[in-house]
Amino acid sequence: MFIAIIGAGAFMYLSSNAGGLIKDSAEEYVPPVIGADFSFGNVDLGPANGVASLKNMEIGNPEGFKSEHLFKMEELLVKMDVSLENMTSDVIHIREIRLEGADMIYEMGRNGNNVRKIQENIDAYMQELGLDSSSDSEKKFIIDDVYVNGTNVKISSDLLGGKGVGFPLPNLHLSGIGEKENGVLASDVIKQIFGAISGSVSKVAESELLKNTVGSVEDAAGNVVKEMEDKVVDQVGNKLKGLIPQ
After folding, report:
1. What's the CA gap between 176 and 95, in Å, rounded?
2. Counting C-beta atoms within 10 Å of the first and last residue's C-beta, which end of the chain has fewer, N or C?
3. Residue 21: CB partners within 8 Å, gap ≥ 6?
4. pLDDT tens over the chain, length 246 residues
5. pTM (two decimals)
6. 113 by DSSP, 3-state: which?
7. Whole-angstrom Cα distance, residue 108 to residue 85?
């Protein structure tokens, strides 16, 4: 949804307050779609080269999750064709989207995980409005490339006993979103990006959690062995003392 708003903002670049219009529109319309708070610092528009930059963007947690946030991002960068032909088309072409330096808290609990919940909220919103990928009443998008770089993830879960597991997420690259379908809705774009992030987090998290579990077991086993060694040394020492005349 905020991708659609950026697109509209790029077309309104002649307005001296285009950045403010995008910010106000996004912070009003995005939360009902994702079912979570959404905010960012400011918008920089470069209409000459078709670049829009959202700084200090934050996506809060959906209902039922307690961590501080889901996503905090230094910058969301969108590069698009701002020609009149493209901006007035039913299918808008975006060259590139970059999500840089995100801090993500992946929370798992009784309600599943917070990323999956965002995706479910988007589905519910679209169903409520009677919209799907075949809808002709909404603008659609084709996106050449999406890059998600420099993301740091912390896993939050009651299963970890209050201890968080943190790790860097491998950089992600998605290409050709909406090409086969001749355009997809902005909500579908968000779902595909979140789906890719969620899949990558799940894969890396499984490895990290296993590593931490194995480490904990090894530490516990090491402590047991050390205690046994100490007991054996003490027992042998006591027996030797009994054999050696004082």
Report:
1. 10
2. C
3. 9, 12, 15
4. 555 555 554 444 444 456 667 777 788 888 998 999 999 888 887 767 778 888 899 999 999 888 889 999 988 888 888 787 887 788 989 999 999 899 999 988 776 889 889 989 988 988 888 877 666 667 889 999 999 999 999 988 766 655 567 889 999 999 999 999 899 888 888 888 888 988 888 888 776 665 654 444 444 444 444 455 455 445 544 544 444 444
5. 0.74
6. strand
7. 45
